Amino acid sequence: MAAETAPAPASPTPVSTAPGPPAPAPLAGWGPPVPLTGWGRTAPTAARTLRPRSAEEAARAVRGCGARGAIARGLGRAYGDAAQNAGGAVLDMTGLDRVHAVDAEQGLVVCDAGVSLHRLMRLLLPLGWFVPVTPGTRHVTVGGAIGADIHGKNHHGAGSFCRHVRTFDLLTADGEIRALTPDDDLFRATAGGMGLTGIVLRATVKLLPVETSLMSVDTERAHDLDDLMARMTASDHRYRYSVAWIDLLARSAATGRSVLTRGDHAPLAALGPRAARTPLAFRPGSLPAVPRHVPPGLLGRGSVGLFNEFWYRTAPRRRTGELQKLSAFFHPLDGLPHWNRIYGPRGFVQYQFVVGHGAEDALRRVVERISRRGCPSFLAVLKRFGAGDPGWLSFPMPGWTLALDIPAGLPGLGAFLDGLDEEVAAAGGRVYLAKDSRLRPELLAAMYPRLADFRALRAAADPRGVFVSDLARRLSL
User: Fold this and answer.
1) What gap in Å lies between CA 273 and CA 256, rounded to an integer?
2) DSSP code of residue 20
3) CA 138 to mean position of chain CA atoms
4) Rounded to two decimals, what is the model's pTM?
5) Which of 22, 46, 173, 248 satisfies CB 3.0 to 4.6 Å to 33 for a cystine?
6) Helix, strand, or coil here: 276?
């Protein structure tokens, strides 16, 4: 077992309170309220923050968080309000960032919850291992990956992140630290539970063996949505990873035209002599960051329409076996730091939903409605989900999931998305809580059948409501 550790700094000292035990006063070290948003940069709220550097400091912070409770926050990549807590406390968990052990024979890593997937890739790829599931950004923490039960382009075969977690330590509202396995109800409530059952401190994750840091990628164009779904249904099983970019501004016979990209980790034998000298090198590139101030309206229907036309027309009709960097295949937007700023000061909404197999007509109706509405989304992707995951509030279910970005300032957007929510709920589908910023609470129970179980366990484990967020208040979680 290889280890990477760092000494923990001294914990701050609690300030004593006058009468009795109910709620200790805030810890020394809590900062003044600061505005926080999700990655979509909408609906900012202010909270006091603290960055604990040990499990003990996190426990003391929870005890001293105050009447408005606390929520954990990682790298801020939840799109909505899941890691905000208006008037309360937010624990920045990136201070718990130690990798404790790597078993390079069994493919296991033990690390703190604040360790990012980016850091794991840098550490593990030279050893021939890769993270089992990665979303569209590698700048998420392990704790965030568990809290949102993230999924990637391989869900149809590998499931979501928590399927690969062997155990994790959870700091609960009573100040105890519990080691949980997938057999525990509290594990299943925490997987996808958006941080509302406690704070993940440390996790053991099973890894994926790879021979190189390159991907072997097949690309093809689909004429419309039906053509795309037929191609994915017929042959996704031959690929570890599969995703389609969709032109949601295309209409009539071209509605849902797409570029389908599928692949797997390239074997060593596929590399040329030069690349074979350093087959596991991981060197993601980066462009200059997007400026802080971008004028509103940059991504309108005209500009996005031109981009979509260019992207579709320049994509190959069919290309096989192209070697791509991991960063280009999995995380192309990570190469543009602060890309969320391009939507301007009002930010954007990411809308992601899933409907089951057999509900393809509902997917078609949603795509047609978005196309008729002219939503200027240059980032819209369709994936297939496999078997559902054990988390009570985990998002994936067998079927089709569509995710799209929409400028928040689009007129009438709220009412339009409410209509899509109703369409999705009527089809037995659901929206992704890690992306959500505006779902109406009355639709939640129809979307998540285990919601009552989650609420009951949360009430029993945290009767004082210590762990709370803007998302939890908005949806009565």
Assistant:
1) 41
2) -
3) 10
4) 0.93
5) 46
6) helix
